[in-house]
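Session log. Operator J.P. requested a structure for one protein chain; no other inputs attached. Running the standard single-chain path with token output.
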Amino acid sequence: MPSQLQKEIKRLKQELAEKEKLIKEQAQTFSHYKKIYGQSSIVAQIGIWECALPTEELTWSDYTYDLFELPRGTRLDRSHTLACYTEASRAELVKRRSDAIAARSGFTLEAEIITFGGKSRWIRITASIECQNDIPVRIFGMKQDITDQKLSFDHMMYLAEYDQMTGLANKSQFLLKLSSAIQGDQVASGHGYLLLIDLDGFKPINDEYGHIAGDECLKEISNRLKSINHSYKEIFRIGGDEFAIITTEIQDIKAVQKFAQRIIDCLSEPFIFEKQLLKLGASIGIARIVGDSVPDVFVNADTALYAAKAAGKATYRCYNPNMGSCAVRISV
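Structure written below.
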């Protein structure tokens, strides 16, 4: 009997040793794959993160630490890491996270952070919820640095929406703004004004002094327009030497006429280019922002601009139906 018991103990010890060996091998394998996974994450520049619920205990991969410029292995406190997000991004993150936990779903978010090292970065966050018996127990996902992508996209959007030479919004933005102003007029029964501005004497300067002088003229004119009208987003360069201002703040015709004269006086002041005194002028056509479409308002303002040119330039005219129709110089 004792010998049988000893045999059983021996068998159990051998079985235990084999299991311990297996566990050790599995642990080594797990550690190996975890290391490869972590290195792959760094190479791919994708950070892995998870947060236990409801304890809010965070776990980050090495690259996530790098992303936030925090020494690897530093003890994590969610309140401290959350403080890295800008106010707008933090508010959106809190909302998306709360909604995802409530819905047992996930989300993707592009957020701006200020790293622990003081750098501004944009990151893309993906998150999923893990549940047990329909109770959320973990939220996890990836964080990726998209700063370069964001800057490239913003620059591309800037090129699409703004004139590179003057920094003013371009014609596409003008059409959107005018359409929005017309829709606002139809809803609110108010009105604003469209001012089309065409430079007088620009072509002779361009021909005599060259395109560099012409470019400097356009930059100077745009700066002067900015100094007159403080709402920069409502000033547009819509053609070679043609500008537009949309104002929904001025409701009185006398006030808009005074504004137009102020523009003419300002743009008529000479300026120096390479020791040469250059002089420009401006003619302005004014039309109320009222009608069924963008072309309606634009044609009215352009008709008034033709009338101002015909009156001897360096003046303005307000549209009225008695002006009749004319060929529109600028296509819409």
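Operator note: Residues 2-44 form the longest helix (43 residues).
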